[in-house]
Amino acid sequence: MSETQFKPHVTLACVVQAEDKFLMVEELIKGKPTLNQPAGHLEANETLLEGAQRELWEETGIIAAPQSLLQIYQWIAPDKTPFIRFTFSIDLPEIVATQPQDDDIERCLWLTYNEIIHAQNLRSPLVRQSLLRYQQTTRYPLSLLETFEWPENLLP
User: Fold this and answer.
1) Closest C-alpha among 111, 127, 135 to residue 11
2) Whole-prediction pTM
3) CATH superfamily of 9-147
4) Can you tell me the distance from the alpha carbon of 110 to that of 148, in angstroms, rounded to the nearest whole number?
5) Residue 126: is its pLDDT beyond 70?
6) How many CB atoms lie within 10 A of CB 22?
7) 37 CB-near residues (< 8 Å, 6+ apart)
C-alpha cells in the first residue's frame, strides 16, 4: 500500500480591526480585483509570528504584532492544493494609514464586516470564515505556538 505524503503550504493571515472596520488588501488575480486579509506564505528560517508580522508589513506597511491566535485551518483549495492557515487577530486603537510594500498589492481598504461578508471577490472561502471566526469571543494565546530547539542564530 502506497501512501501519498501530505505537503501543505503553510500560510499566515492577520484579521486586523480598528474602529469597527477590518483591513483588507486588494490584489489582481487573473486580472480581477480580489480581497484578502494581509496574508502569505511562511518563509524558511522564520517563526509563525515573524512571518505574520512580515506579511502584514509587506502588504500594508503597518508594523504590528499579532495579539492572539484565532484559528488554524486545514483546507484543500479547488485546484487540490493543500493549505494549513494560521489566522491571527490584531486590534488597533484607530485606523492607520497604509503603504503596501509589495507590488502585488493594488491597495489597502478598511471595510465593514458586512462589506466583507457580502463581497463577491474574496480570495478564498477562508477570508469570510476568518472574519466569522473573529466575531466569536474565543481567542487563543500566542504561547500555544512555540519554536522548539530553534537554532540560536534564528531566535528573535
Assistant:
1) 127
2) 0.92
3) Nucleoside Triphosphate Pyrophosphohydrolase (3.90.79.10)
4) 36
5) yes
6) 19
7) 13, 14, 15, 16, 22, 23, 24, 25, 87, 127, 130
